[in-house]
Amino acid sequence: MLILGIDTSSKTSAVGLLKDDLPLGNYTLTGSVYHSESLNEMIDDILKKQNLKISDIDLFAVGIGPGSWTGLRIGLAVIKTFAQTLNKPMVTVSSLGAYAENFKGFEKIVPVIDAKRNRIYYGIYSNKEKLKVIKEDCLENIEDAEKFFEDAYFVGESAKFIGEKLQKPYKTSQILPTDLCKLALEKYKEKGEDNFYTALPNYLNVSQAEREYGKSKKSDK
């Protein structure tokens, strides 16, 4: 089975291609480029390097966060469009889980994303043999979350920030897109495909635009 997976939960656009258990390619791009401008070019490029077409893909996978509000919407919209247009299955995966998948043999992995205003997105995972969720992805104040972090190993793009703040071991890392593909394939085999009509990003938070809209509505009263 040929799986195309993408993640846009952070400033990094990530595209991966997996054939069964064999990684065919990972493509990541970090910087000021908007996801909407980079994603399609990245997908075209990774397919061309393998002499493949988008219609050759058997399963589409996407990280649904938590993370960047705008990025999540863009990534999910791209995968939904491919799945619906080509009549192929799609599967959604936790972006935090995809971070954790890359750390085999660890008992307590905490992928973490800085959510600003002294808050973090995080989940707690074990990856001794197979990735298991210990604590579901959530959004909490750092002080409230700290009690869960005994013997934790922080990973992800914000690992340095939280690791140094709490004096815990950490490794700054990015999502390996083919890890996301592996998780999607496992989920597909166990639970089947997700419904592209009802699949939603895991925001865990309201956007800045919604906060500003809420303030304006209150001021109008």
From TrEMBL:
The protein, known as: tRNA threonylcarbamoyladenosine biosynthesis protein TsaB
Domain Gcp-like: 34-147
CDD domains: ASKHA_NBD_TsaB (cd24032)
InterPro entries xrefs: ATPase_NBD, Gcp-like_dom, T6A_TsaB
Species of origin: Peptoniphilus koenoeneniae
Family matches, as PANTHER family: TRNA N6-ADENOSINE THREONYLCARBAMOYLTRANSFERASE (PTHR11735), TRNA THREONYLCARBAMOYLADENOSINE BIOSYNTHESIS PROTEIN TSAB (PTHR11735:SF11)
Coiled coil: none
Domain of life of the native organism: Bacteria
